[in-house]
Amino acid sequence: MWMETKTDVEEARRSRTSFSRRVLNTLLSCTGDMKHLDEYMEDKLFVLQLVVWALRGVARVTLANNPLTGALILAALYWASPWQGLLGTLGVLVSTLTAVIMGQDSAEVAGGLYGFNGMLVSLLMGVFSSAGDWYGWLLLPVCFGSATCVFLFSGLSSVLDRWDLPVAVFPFNIIIILYLVCAGQDNPYFPHLPALPPGTLESNGTKLMATEVMRGIPLGVGQIFACGALGPSLLILGALLLYSPLMALHALLGSAVGTLIRQVVSISLAIRQNVNTTLKKDSNR
């Protein structure tokens, strides 16, 4: 009787151990590049493969290469603004499909390298637009700009590869600047918000607000996708953590440095403004 009880206890312990190990292995399989998913998707429908490629393109904006990371980031964008989420989805799908039609390298397409520039273009067009959300005309430049990114990416790659330089977000920068210059603020179909002159910053007093700094650090990570809400920004940070804890730490550190510098500059401007005001008053006396 005692031997049977001992055997049952050992079997229960082994069962719990094996279950915990399976859970851990499942979690670990969702991290990193998830290469096993590519092997699984080889014989699946093209639509399903396109979804995985597009999600990798979403994650590539943060230099990650994980479709689950991309799915979480896209969910965060829809959480913050369904309109921005739609624009980002349309941009990454159009650019990825354009690369497929052009016959670009299949490994690069599957890795999302032709999707992230299109997504950035579409998101920034939505942010700069002064026509508000759900403005249908904006879908035209979003599709055209996202598709053009693929041509620029392919053309610049052949040039920059000679010096072993990455193309990165050059296509996105070129397209968004050309769009803003050509459309103009008073365009009847594609109006956009005015750009602030260099050095224009709003001063927030002469005190360093710890709460604002702490809140600004995760928001700085979300601003990679033009997301200004705290909850979605934390979800984006969690998506990075899923891919690589080290990358998430680097993102936090970079955002923290930028946020602190922004606060210091703002305080310096406020102090200078107060000094100038005091000097003017003294001179008038």
TrEMBL record:
Coiled coil: none annotated. It is found in: Cell membrane. The keyword Transferase does not apply. Its main location: membrane. Keywords: Cell membrane, Membrane, Transmembrane, Transmembrane helix, Transport. It is a multi-pass membrane protein. It comes from the Eukaryota. GO terms for cellular component: plasma membrane. The chain crosses the membrane at residues 83-102, 109-128, 134-156, 163-181, 217-243. The keyword Transmembrane applies. Pfam families: UT (PF03253). InterPro entries: Ammonium/urea_transptr, Urea_transporter. It catalyses: urea(in) = urea(out). GO terms for molecular function: urea transmembrane transporter activity. Belongs to the urea transporter family. This is Urea transporter. The lineage of its organism: Eukaryota, Metazoa, Chordata, Craniata, Vertebrata. The gene is si:dkey-183c6.7.
